[in-house]
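Sample A.
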Amino acid sequence: MSKKGQKVHDKKVFIPYEQNQLILPMSVESQIPKNHVVRVVNRAIDQMNLAPMLAKYPGGGRASFNPVMMTKLLVYAYTDKIFSCRRIAKAARENIMYMWLCGGNKPDFMAVNRFRSERMKDIILEVFAEVVDLLEKEKYIKLENYFLDGTKIEANANKYSWVWGKATKRYKDALMEKCRELFKEIDKINEEENDEYGDSDLEELGNGKPIDSGAIEEAVRKIDERLAQKPQDKKPDTETKKLKKARKTLDKDYLPRMQKYEGQQAILEERNSYSKTDHDATFMRMKEDHMKNGQLKPGYNVQIGTENQFIVGYSIHQNPGDTSCMKEHLEIVKSILDGNLPKNVIADAGYGSEENYEYLQDNELEHYVKYNTFHKEASEKWKADITKVQNFSYIEDRDEYVCGYGRPLVFLYEYKRTSDNGYQSIIRVYEGLNCSGCPHRDKCVKSEKPFANRRININRKLNEFKEKARQNLTSEEGLKMRSLRPVEVESVFGDIKGNFGIRRFLLKGLEKVNVE
């Protein structure tokens, strides 16, 4: 180097850089800030009772990674927005925060995945209950106000792999009809061939019995028995050829198809759809910014309840509607909270059903739960519409309703309506005595028959629940709870989906999704 270059270099000042230089102190823990979130996670899990998790390990055999350490690793990774088991394992090898949390252990991605999907699935609610208990002890929550809402999160499944319940039933019914026709033909062949069988010949094939895979297998067996009775050294006659053809159709075509449809219905149970690549996922309409009505995709309905923006309870459902999820969700929350429930439940109109109101009443819970027409009923337009049932007068001693035009509607009959959950409601039907000549008839009467009168369906029990809900919602406390609901639970969903970017599950199956 020239003297001139040396002088320029001498003027530069750098912090010493020696890669092979030993630096004290050597403790990893000393490199982590005191208030870092990794310390919060570590301290919180150390305070939990993880005995249920430890009880899942039978002992003996090859040593396992400590479940307390694995729990800390998973919780901190999710806090750090790392969800992939391979990335979690990579962080445990390379990131100083994870290295300290793991105490130098380096679980590979298979160990992380196995712990998350297999070990955690049986005790996830117990661990979550410990989190809620810790929050209550630290005075972050009081378990007073429970803000409930649901959102749909896409499943890790092919969005074009649907199986629809209605289509499966239609195809199965069509196949059953084909089987009936073929059974009749087989019966006819045997009757014509041998009169000794009479009306009882191959009775398993027909007689109006349910047709399923078992019936088809039985029919194939009967045909085989009949063919075995025929002389083998003679040339097959017309009836034998028909029986062989029928057997081939049953065994190679109808039986596999029937087994397929029965398998699909077993997976569907009470649902209307499922995905071929994740049988537990149901096709639901996902809210998309660029689509008005959303797009049908396989997913799960995630229900959460919050207080002070902490998640106090959660559950995963296969039903896309929120209404049918409330009871099951609150029962899960009850198990988390040792048989107790928060004092007040606050939810939007998606939960306002007779079944849910009755559940809240039976469990002596105060509630601020809207019903579907709550806001409409408060509008001036609704109040001025004399065709609305809510604006009709009821005369109790005559059990009659009087419409806004002053004409009576008398009781006709009552019937029971059963919900998807099996809940029965009693509906009373009333009909107007004479709606002819009414200036509002075209708007009021839905029937296209020229002399039809207005009919209304009245659910008295639900109306009583609605009146109680209306009083609660319009009270001073109700107005406060209604204003807090979007701030509470909606912001938590925004944090999960927007900040954490969780818009699609990584794991497949209801149990694994529940853990995730």
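Sample B.
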Amino acid sequence: MDEQNYLDFLRKVSEAIANSNSDPKVAFPLLQANLDKLDNNFVRFLQTWATAKLSEVETDTTEFTAKTIWDLSYCLSNFPLSDKANNMEIVIAGYEAVLKVFTREGNRENWAAIQNNLGIAYSDRIRGNRAQNLENAIATYNLVLEVCTKESFPIDWATTQYNLGIVYRNRIRGDRAQNLENAIAAYNLALEVYTKKDFPMYWAMTQNNRGNAYRNRIRGDRAQNLENAIAAYNLALEVYTKKDLPNTWAMTQNNLGIAYKNRIRGDRVQNLENAIAAYNLTLEVYTKKDLPMYWAMTQNNLGIAYSDRIRGNRAQNLENAVGTYQSENLELAIASHKKALEIYNLGSTYSNKIRHYRGENLENPIEAFRSENLELAIAAYQNASEVYTREAFPEEWAEIQHNIGKLLVQQGKWYDGLSHLEQTLAFYRQTENLESRADTIYQIARTHHLMSNLDKARLHYCDALRIYQHINNQPGIATCKTGLGRLMISIGYIDDALHELNQAWQIYDTINHKLGIENTQELIQFIHKIREKQST
């Protein structure tokens, strides 16, 4: 490692920034010309050199050196090229070194500004443990708030509240429900300063993120949370216009589409039409040519919306068991998925698709079409797994294996399905993705239940239930308790079954899960009928 080259590079970057009134973009060409120096060796050089230089007694020289490192760190945090993982390590090393000079006691304002930047760096960090990086960011922001109060530094206080909201929304540790409550509270505090009149851009940005938090909120009334999300997105769109901020406008339209797709209140038909309209507006900006990744994402969302779209008397069609009259929408859905090149999501569409019965001479036409679509879905997922390999895309691979396993089980290929699910579980046991781990364990429990391996089914239901309870996933808890209730009925433990099902019903009722309520009520009524027969 040639330390002199790194030192010369550091001085050139510092001079470039100093001559530009601290505009980091001025140094970008210089950084681009020296990408080879933005490596792990530079991280080590910076740590060693900064420790030595900043321990010198000359106050003026020390502060100048600290400012140089601060400028470099800020510049790199905004630099879009080179390896971001390396960049963030340099940024963190730089800010941590500078904090030894600009201390809380000696220079509170600079100390708080650097801490805030350090919090952003930790939240964007790629290396290290993701969960711990976010904890570091939260701790850092809370330190800032000890100095930057609303009264003394209102803008800095609001900025830190906003940043804290983002980290809490993404937080891995702690209770997911409480993290989202903390995020919403932080956004609401930021809006006490970020008003539409004084800070329209920051106000709109906060409204959009507040909408995301409400859309994913676990506590409170689900229907009202979605209404709050829709209201927040519409507020953001008062500032985010297609003309002035096309990309941000499109992003918010996409978020609005997701909220309308999931909306509980209002007319379901109109909600889906609103979702489709919002996605189509998004695609006016997210084009395949200019923004292929975002274009594909929106096409994917559009495909899902078309899959659920309602025309005619869909409920009556389903009740008559003749088929649904949504073939046009399903074909549009599949077309959208194909456009997005999301073979993975094609599987979801095919697995849910029921074609319109045209009178073929079949004993059970709906079941026949259902079987065909399951085959198409499995084939789509298997094609996707050729791209999303375990080595290159481990998370996507695991999700695909999980879905293949579920579909094979639906086909009655229990052993093949179980094999895929167990592969998935082996992967999730090595990650911190507890929700996906619990989902997979539940599917394994359900498969053993179908295979009449009741002891294994019970153990897996209980294992999934423990994880769901740990992460406070209420729908998951209710689903496991329903499964346990069914199992207890099958082995004759009626009182235990009723206990589990009553608890599941209470959860479904609390979260307003209509299908869950109906299913558990049906099972509870079945138990009461058993008791009536036993009493006679």
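B remarks: Residues 93 and 420 are 43 Å apart (CA to CA). DSSP finds 25 helices and no strands in the chain.
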